[in-house]
Predict the structure.
Amino acid sequence: MAAGAETFSLREVLVAFTACVSEQREVRVDPYLAGWKGLVRFLNCLGTIFSFISKDAVTKIEIIENYRNSDQREKYLTVQSMVEYELANGLVDLQKRSEHPDSGCRTFLRLHRALHWLQMFLEGLRTGEDNSKTSVICSETYNASLANYHPWIIRKAAGVAFCALPTRNTFLETMNVGTAEEAVAMLGEALPYICEVYKITEELYAQHKLLDLP
Ligand code: 1Q0
C-alpha cells in the first residue's frame, strides 16, 4: 500500500453521500462531488497503476466544480436544477458531442454510471468471504456495469489494474474505520444512502431521456 493511505477514511465518504439527498429528494451536487473526491483519494493510495482512472474522475469532478464556481452556480446546486437549466437553454448535446462537449448533464452521467459500479462493488465487498479476492469482486462488478460503456482498450487497462488490488481484508482495513468487521458494518450503513442517490438520479435521467448522452 502506498504512503498516504492514512489520510482516507470511509467515514468521510459516507458522510458526504448521506448529505446528498435533500428533503425534497433532490441530489445536492457539492456533497456528491465531495464523496467522489474522497473516493479518488482512496484510489490514489492504491498505487499509480490506477492513475488513469483517478485522472479521468478528477477531470469530471473539476468540470462540474467549475460550473459551481461560475456565475451560474445556483443552477448547479442540485442535479435536478442542473438538468432543468441545461435542457431549457440548449446546453446539452443530445445526439453527438459537438457544441457542448462538457455539459454538466453528460459529465454527471459518467459519474452516475460509475456510482452504479461502486454500489455493486461495495455490496460485493460487504458480503464477500474473508479470503475472497477484491480483484475478482472488482472485475465482476465492473463487467456487469461500467464496462458496457467503455471501449476495449479501457476495459483491458482496467482489467490489468484490478490485478493489483490487495486482498479483501487489507482493502477493508485501508478504509480506516477500525477492523475489517467494523468496515463491513459501516459499508452496510453507507450503502442505502448511495443506492438512494443512484436511484433518484437514474429516475431523473430516464424521465428526461438522458441516459445515453454522447
Ligand atoms: C478499487 C478499484 C477501483 C476501480 C475503479 C473501477 C472503475 C474503472 C473505470 C475505468 C475508467 C477509465 C478511465 C477513462 C474512462 C472514460 O473513458 C469514461 C467515459 O468518459 P468519456 O468522457 O470518455 O465519455 N469515464 C468514466 O466512465 C468515469 C469513470 C470514473 C471512475 C471513477 C472511479 C473512482 C474509484 C474510486 C475508488 C473506489 C474505491 C472503493 C472503496 C472505497 C470505500 C468507500
Notes: The two ends are 36 Å apart (CA to CA). The CA atoms of residues 76 and 127 lie 36 Å apart. The domain at 9-87+102-207 is CATH 1.10.3520.10 (Glycolipid transfer protein, GLTP).
